[in-house]
């Protein structure tokens, strides 16, 4: 995450960053379901809050 922030704020000429991923979409859905089912746990709350900060 820090590398992304460094690029965002220090490399002003970069306009687009493309992320490519590989793997099973069903695994992502399982992970998201797990996070939603356990959002009462402090660590899950921290993980979910990361995406809301930006």
Write down the overall mean pLDDT.
85
What's the N-to-C terminus distance? 11 Å
* Rg value: 15 Å
* Major beta sheet summary: none
Q: Can you tell me the overall shape?
A: flat
> What low-confidence regions span 5 or more consecutive residues with pLDDT below 50?
none
How much of the polypeptide forms β-strand, as a percent range? under 5%
Q: Which tags fit this structure?
A:
mainly alpha; 54 residues; single chain
Question: Could you explain how this protein is built, in words?
Answer:
By secondary structure, this protein is mainly α. The protein has a domain of 33 residues. The chain is built from 3 helices and no strands. It is flat and about 40 Å long.
Fold blueprint:
Layout: H1 2-10, H2 25-37, H3 42-52
Short description:
With 54 residues, this protein is mainly α. Helix content is 61%, strand content 0%. It is built from three helices and no strands.
């Amino acid at each position: 995450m820090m590398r992304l922030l460094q690029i965002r704020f220090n490399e002003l000429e970069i306009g687009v960053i493309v992320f490519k991923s590989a793997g099973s979409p069903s695994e992502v859905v399982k992970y998201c379901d797990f996070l939603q089912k356990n959002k009462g746990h402090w660590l899950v709350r921290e993980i979910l809050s990361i995406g809301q900060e930006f």
